Amino acid sequence: MIELQKRPDIEKHGRVCAVQDRTVWQDSRMFRCQLREGWNGAASDNDGKGVRQAWNNINAFAAQLVATSHSQSQDKPDLSLYCIWTVRTALEDSDDQPEHAALSAGSLCSINAAPAIWNLCGQEATFDGKLAKPRSQYGSDKWRGFTRDRWRSWNKKLRGFQGQISNV
Fold first, then answer.
1. InterPro entries annotated for this entry (predicted)?
2. How far apart are CA 36 and CA 27, in angstroms?
3. Rg (CA), the chain
């Protein structure tokens, strides 16, 4: 994201290209809005292969951005909440078998952003309100973001599903 924001403005006929009064490449708020829309369309096992693959792609992409931007000193934009939402859906929603689509997307977050997530857990990075609150089965836990306890819980559950995870 940082490298994209460094790109020169796109111009046409001497005018800077803007979308909804935001300069293309310079304003990451537009990007975050688009990315957020992707989470409104989370795939389920009932969706077709194309929808599940698109869901995996957006999760892998967001996780790679988390890993890349977290390694920068500015850590902007912070997209790590998307990793929490995806992994939480896969591993915190129930004690039973999660949907394959959720498990696949959650594992892609873990694969692509594990070092950044581990570091955020060490920092105990939190979010306001209920954004990163644990699901009901973890109701007694006070997680509001990344913690080492949450990390251990995720890894324990993920290990239990080894061999059941594929790309779609």
1. OpdG, Oxopyrrolidines_Biosynth-assoc
2. 15
3. 17
Q: Which domain holds residue 83?
A: 43-160
The answer to whether residues 36 and 47 belong to one domain is: no
pLDDT band at 5 (very low <50, low <70, confident <90, very high): low
Nearest to 109 by CA among 61, 146, 70: 61
DSSP 106-153: HHHHHHHHHHHHHHHHHHT-B-STTTTPPPGGGTT---SB--HHHHHH
Residues 28 and 55 in one domain: no
Q: Is residue 5 part of a domain?
A: yes
When divided into structural domains, the chain yields a total of 2
Residue 167 lies in a domain: no
Q: What is the mean pLDDT of residues 140-153?
A: 88
Residues 7-62: pLDDT tens digits?
666 667 777 776 667 666 566 666 777 788 888 889 999 999 999 999 999 999 89
By the 8 A CB rule, do 87 and 109 touch? yes
